[in-house]
Structures
1.
Amino acid sequence: MSKLKNKILKDYLLNKCSTREIESLRQWLEESEDHASQLFKIEELYHLGKFHMNQDAEHIEKAEQNLFKAIDNSKSIKFKSPHFLRYAAVAIIILCTCSYVGYFAYHTNKAFSMIEVSATAKSVKRVLLPDGTNVWLNHSSTLRYPQKFTKEKRDVELKGEAYFEVTKNPHQPFIVKSDAMTIEVLGTKFNFNTKHSNNYEELSLLEGVVQIHGNNDKSTITIIPGQKIILNKQTQQITIQRVDARMESLWHENMISFKRSNIQKIVAILERLYNIHINIDSNINQRMTYSGEMRRYEQIDSTLKALCYSMPICYKRKGEYIYLYQINK
Amino acid sequence: MQEESSMNDRFQSESKFRNVFRKYYPQALFYATRLVGNSDAEDVVQDAFIEVWKRKKEIVSEEYIRAFLFRTIYTYSLNILKHRTITQNYAESMQAINIKKAEYYRPENNDAIKLIENIELHNEIKIAINELPNKCRQVFIMSYIHEMKNKEIADILNISVKTVEVHIYKALKYLRKRLDYLILLLFTFILNQ
């Protein structure tokens, strides 16, 4: 029985084997039954140590969301049966009738016509409503609003996530409806996320006051700036947390402003914006702060470069791995 | 009234399913990655969980779910591997090695599966690495987890390659003492340098 050369083992683990090395590895494996389990156990352990350092809760949560998206899709595929055509025919007839009726409704009453705006999967879209309210729609989100608001109230509907800056008008409440709740405001800034990890809807308040009614519940809740309300759609349970509300709505900003922020704070903001992890070297001075505005670039590299111009720090990047360190004088 | 209770049942089985998912996802992903590699592993695991979802009413025990999950991942992975040998012209020797590897990871092989399920082992590796002194840990993680070359690490940390080597040597010495059953792993790792 021969022993496997260390060089071959190492190259095999790092996936760098030459053709000749692969050939001798194969010969070694065929020498005895034991060899296979020896080699693959080493390989397994090698990867096990690495793997579990990289598994975080966020990754699992994302996978869970994707899984339920796939489950929903596989449900809708089921309808591709001959029966489906029959239902489709009926649906088309109903649709035609409705649009015929709808056509007349549209022309007789302008308030009925709703406008629907959606942001694509990759862009944030800014919408200006008839009353001057600004809405930023996050990726793949949709807002429906009437061409003209009625005198009593301003009704809109949201699917996805949006940041609202509502024009003040005490006589005409602004109302946002989602699947699970209805929000009523007079004039405020808030971030509303209706699809946070499938089962939850979240609302965080930056300014003013909002009133929230659950759609299946008659009670009303009022929150104040700096608070976030989380509604579990399954259990109808409501939680209120203290948050840095600006962080929640950060995604809509084109300019990132920092006010005497230290490196921890800056990194936290960048991590959130680009959905990445940044490693900070222990030699970075934590008391050093930065104030000012920075453009938010599409690429993290451009933003990091801009940051390195403004502070005595440097960054290195290798794939997903980003490392910030201070320049030694 | 009856409708309400069936709704409750549905929620209950869904939340049970979600718990199972969170618990087994990391193991399942690791298992699939070992078989088909990074690029296809997430898809394989997702498809396997969809199968579990479809059967969630028949499933009685968690032990059964786990076994079913690993078996499904294994079957799907073999299909992918078979497809690959047809489409990609692998060297014959590499194919032979991959066949033996797939054999090692079959769900009946307790040696392979036990290691994956051994949560204590995972935690211990993590804890041991975290016990290393600051700089030493940084260097070790860059080298082992991120597979960076010593020269690259030296450039980033602004230290000499020699210092990098010293840190890795120290880290390995400590870890070997701390995790003796992992000697194999660390022994092979030191060859990296």
2.
Amino acid sequence: MGKVGIIGVGQSAFVRGYPGSIRELAFEGFRDAVQDAGVSSQDIDASVICSAPEYDKQRSPAGVFAEYLGLVPQPTFYMESLCSSSSMGLRVAYSLVKSGLHDVVAVIGFQKMSEISSAESQERMGRGADIQWESPFGTMMPAYYAMYARAHMEKYGTTPEDLALIRVKAATYGQVNEKAVYRKPVTFEMFSDPESPMSNPVASPLRVGDCCANADGSSCVIVASEERAKTLSQKPVWIMGLGAASTAVNLAGRDLFTGLTVAQEAGDQAYKMAGVTPKDIDVAEVHDCFTIAEMMAYENLGFAQPGEGKELIKSKATYKEGSIPVNVDGGLLSKGHPIGATGGSQLRTIVLQLRGEAGDMQVKDPEVGLVHNIGGVGLYGNVTILGR
Amino acid sequence: MGKKKEVDDRFKKFGTVSFTAITKVNDFIDYLEQGKVMASRCQTCGMVFFPPRADCYKCLTSDMEWVEVSGKGKLVSYSKLEFAPIGFGDDLPYAIALLDYGDYKVFGRIADNVPDDEIRVGMELVTRVNELPNGQLNYVFDRV
């Protein structure tokens, strides 16, 4: 059995209020990836469509997209694991290719969140938690992650200022990423300036500046068997390791509140499959839906010991020139987080990095990259390791 | 005798807004009305579940009994919300929290009468039933 390669990556710009329908949005990411790969729709044997369905009026978007993108009569179906849908889609595409069922598969992620209000969107996102036993208390994503932040601060002495440094880093790179929704600079001082929206409390101890923005966007990753990848692509990037895990949806069913067990478990699986260790990772994309999520990712993925994530950001080790660059495309915090498209966008960044095509965001000569993509409040975890 | 079949949708009374109406653990609501917060215990293996459940995944049986959530739990973490999802705005500000009872944990809210500056991770709190202004029922964590 041969390897499985990524031969094309693409994404739309992540924006607020995309001026088109979901099929048109999906077209943007798809065209970008197909042109990147230098293939046509006819070269693609199957498509996996990824999103979180509660935002869509269209039932079963897969068939609609496949027709719009010229991917019929090939098989198409829908894949969902909240915010990690397109990483899970990649996992499925990998197995479709590895099994020999298909040679070339497109993983298309999308989300158009702007058709509903922010409060309504928070309510729907909150329903990715336990709707029977938690949602009736008025839960929302920032508050859940805030509980992890509180626990982390309590146990390890992490401070709101440490978390602010993560947002400042994200904004440093968001400014140079033309696909990002938030491209303005963010300074450390804004977090202590009552005049700045960044300092406004959302769910203690998290502030506006600690939270990523909703966005509309699409992404696409095209994978191929080793043989087809070598034929079709000049610079295939290989899938070296895949990990995935789940845990109790209700926080009452969990034991760890200073980190995400799904990230630890998915990371362990991916490192083992790839035959590498955290030290071998040259560039990483982690799921920074909130600043605390990036802090926990440093620790859960083994870039830092538990409780020492703050030292990585304080020493700028996770900046582009540092020992372990993380989210040097601006992350979810700057790019925005169109749920189903996010994993594909993270994968795209790492593929571009490994090909040396990341422009202003390029890390020096990386060979191995990692993507950490979380669904819900640490409900689902996917870790993917890619190499040249 | 021609009696209309009634739908047991008691669970719609749980919390500010309930997203569930029909569940096999509807008696949870009756207990709330009696001022009791209940967990369920598997009569085969003895495992206690909170939130309560109708079925034991270990034994694959449904022989459950109700046991009261009583005594003190330790505050694991909490967050005070300044924004709320649709339907919860009138409750603001409020704090969601997790209380550890050792054998199980309980997710809920901290009582409004507990001052912010008294809330500490690790502090002991008790779980009590709370009637909301809209007539719904939930439970909150209050001072011992």
